[in-house]
Amino acid sequence: MSTMTGIWMIVGMALVTYLVKATVLILGDRVRFAPIVKTALGFVPVTVLTAIVVPIVVAPHHGDAELSWRNPQLVAALGTAVVGFSTRHALATIAFGLALFFAWHMWVAP
């Protein structure tokens, strides 16, 4: 991809984002969504975060899936999920996940 292509892609994405947000701000309360649409929009943050995180965890080197104990991203994600679900404490979950990732990356799977 050339530099100009990348620049035009960024400009296009920025324009689309601006137009969507500006439309919502301009129309404000005049637009009513159906209850099912409101429910569906509630799942958008979870699905976007999942779409970003899962490829990084499963295939950290942009190749095939690395589903082994030597993948520190996968080990840290699984350990973090366990701590997050059991404690429900965001700061403890983040701290544990970072500590597990760096420890695993340095000592177990260098």
Question: In terms of topology, how is this protein built?
Answer:
Elements: H1 3-27, H2 35-42, H3 44-58, H4 72-87, H5 90-108
Helix pairs in contact: 4-5
Structural overview:
This protein is mostly helical and 110 residues long. The chain folds into 2 domains: 32 residues; 68 residues, no CATH class. It contains 5 helices and no strands. Helix 4 packs antiparallel against helix 5. It starts with a helix and ends with a helix. 6% of the residues are buried. The model has no long low-confidence stretch (mean pLDDT 92).
The tally of domains stands at 2
What oligomeric state do the depicted chains represent? single chain
What average pLDDT do the residues reach?
Answer: 92
Number of helices: 5
What is the number of beta strands?
A: 0
Structural class: mainly alpha
Looking at the structure, what is the overall shape? flat
Helix share of residues?
over 70%
Low-confidence stretches are: none
Radius of gyration: 20 Å
- Could you spell the SSE succession in H and E letters? HHHHH
For the record, give the distance between the C-alpha atoms at the N and C termini, rounded to a whole number: 33 Å
Q: In this structure, how is the largest beta sheet organized? A: none
Strand portion, in percent? under 5%
Transmembrane segments: 6-28, 40-58, 78-104
Protein name: Branched-chain amino acid transport protein AzlD
Pfam family, one: AzlD
Keywords: Membrane, Transmembrane, Transmembrane helix
